[in-house]
Amino acid sequence: MSIRPLVILPDTRLRQISDPIVRVDARVRAIVEDMFETMYDAPGIGLAAIQVGIPERIVTVDVGSREAQDEDGDEDAEREKHPLALINPEIIAASQELSVYSEGCLSIPEYYADVERPARVKVRYMDLNGETQEIDADGLLATCVQHEIDHLNGVLFIDHISKLKRDRVITKFTKLAKKERIGD
């Protein structure tokens, strides 16, 4: 297992549509292990393979680490892990009811915005044994899964906010990337 470098906005790979996985094998399981290690290290609650430069339909999620905060919201509370790997995930049903969460993204560090999405979704995916599974997700899990599936389709959470705010974020990260290149 290893921590992989994150792909950061404005990297154009984040707009790439990821390819489906044909067979879940040792290579795919190794990618999933690296993704979990990278996600926990960041720390984050979800990661799409494209965020570590792999244009394949693989998602890792663990909202349990977020929900494990103590009653005072202490970030250092003991975190219980509930890892979920989704291969070729697809939303097969979504509620009409919507919910709003303040979303962030490991590929757009330190930027958060309220995003409205369906409150509940049903997702079909393959597990690490190559078996087809379905889950009903609501709350934070529903938001996280939708956010990560968007990544597989080249969509970022900032695409769900106003054009003015999105343009400001893109401009900010483009300037930061230029400064880093000049500083190298």
Automatic annotation (TrEMBL):
UniProt keywords (A-Z) are: Hydrolase, Iron, Metal-binding, Protein biosynthesis
Q: TM spans, by residue?
A: none
| Matches recorded under PANTHER family | PEPTIDE DEFORMYLASE
- Kindly list the positions annotated as binding Fe cation: C105, H147, H151
> Which Pfam families does this one have?
Pep_deformylase
Q: What is this protein called?
A: Peptide deformylase
Major enzyme class: hydrolase
Cofactor binding notes: Binds 1 Fe(2+) ion.
Which family does the similarity line name?
Answer: Belongs to the polypeptide deformylase family.
Q: What does this protein do?
A: Removes the formyl group from the N-terminal Met of newly synthesized proteins. Requires at least a dipeptide for an efficient rate of reaction. N-terminal L-methionine is a prerequisite for activity but the enzyme has broad specificity at other positions.
Q: According to its UniProt record, which cofactors does this protein need?
A: Fe(2+)
From the UniProt record, list the reaction(s) this protein catalyses: N-terminal N-formyl-L-methionyl-[peptide] + H2O = N-terminal L-methionyl-[peptide] + formate
Q: Does the keyword Iron belong to this entry?
A: yes
Q: Where is the active site?
A: E148
Q: Which terms under GO biological process does the entry name?
A: translation
Checking InterPro entries in the record gives: Peptide_deformylase, Peptide_deformylase_sf
Q: What is its EC number?
A: 3.5.1.88
Any GO MF annotation of the entry: metal ion binding
Its lineage reads:
Bacteria, Pseudomonadati, Pseudomonadota, Alphaproteobacteria, Hyphomicrobiales
